[in-house]
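Quick question, first post here. What does this chain look like in 3D?
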Amino acid sequence: MQTNDFAQDPTPPDCFRLEELQAFQSVEQQSLVDVNYYLWLNHANAAETPARFLYVLELIFDQPEALLLSSGEDSDAIGIIAPEALIKTAGQLQTLHGRVSVQRVNAGALPLWQQVLGRKLDGIRLSRKENSLYLNDVLLLDFGSRKIVVQLSMKDGLEVGEYIP
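> Answer (accepted):
Ran it through. Tokens below.
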């Protein structure tokens, strides 16, 4: 999705683009097979434990392509990225820091995700802006009786948790 020429896109930066909305619709009614977190390891210096934040959430459905949600490099909006963009960013960070800076962690075994693995995604719920566009700071993964919120963190990256009304 990030390969578009955004300079000519009239969609405001705080809203999802049409291509992203179509990608969300394409995974509706698909069964969730697995989930991966891609953590950005922010190395202040080599002697300290790196700060970590959730850079990309990979949702793997029973269709050929996974859905990769990212906070972006500056954590200003949730967007969909291509696997190639994730690989490119990870490679650039490794070159820059001289060590791995993006780490994949399988999250399917976490209690949050165990409850929805194998279930169909009923839909992705979004907040609507007054101009009929959809805000890109939070989304709700609706698995029927279980719902998971994906939102921008107050610090960096994404936050993922169970939706409790």
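Residues 75 and 155 are 8 Å apart (CA to CA).
The two ends are 31 Å apart (CA to CA).
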